Amino acid sequence: MSVRFTLEKRTNVYGESPIRLSWSFGGRRYQSTLGFSINKANWDDVKKLVKSGTHNIKGQKAEDINFIIKRISLVATGIEQHFDGNEKSLTKDMMKKAISDVQSNDFARIEDIIERCIEGTVSIPKTETRYYRDLQHRYYRLLCDAEYNHLSFNILQQLFGRGERIAVPSTDFKPRKIEGIKSHVLFYKEVSYEEVFGR
Questions:
Q1: Structural domain range at position 10
Q2: 79-116 pLDDT tens trace
Q3: 139 touches 156 (CB < 8 A)
Q4: Which runs of consecutive H residues, i.e. helices, occur in 84-199?
Q5: Are residues 168 and 80 in the same domain?
Q6: How many domains is the chain built from?
Q7: pTM score of the predicted model
């Protein structure tokens, strides 16, 4: 397979290593970290997947991380099959865009990502997407605001998982004082793109 997944040698403060992908095809090579870090003991170096039943310090489960890894492999295989015999037509920018589409949760079907790459359509325009982290260190992006029975909600989509959408009361985005805790608690804290994707 031309797409390889490995653990970087460097580790974070929790002793976890970033998962790196390397995609080589037709003389082009695209490399990037996936935004996940995992303890070396929880990495299956033969299967190139996170060991089942484990999770990282952020609470990101093996099943959710492996879901992204497998989707990337399927997308890369589909794209390569199209360009087989004319490998030079697949550019590094196209590879990068395809991987970004897999990680964005904007596409439910793998076929749509492959078709988008093959057609060479323009990348999705950058928008001011807002990202949040909950108390379990799970990451979300804000989709929209909503109201129901005079209550305000924020609709979030979980990242690095299966893209579940949740409705969270707007009050959970404001500091709240909890008995026994001196400082105010933010149940959903806004964070930067760099923190979410580790870039």
A1: 3-119
A2: 888 887 777 788 888 999 999 999 887 777 888 888 88
A3: no
A4: 92-104, 110-119, 193-197
A5: no
A6: 2
A7: 0.59
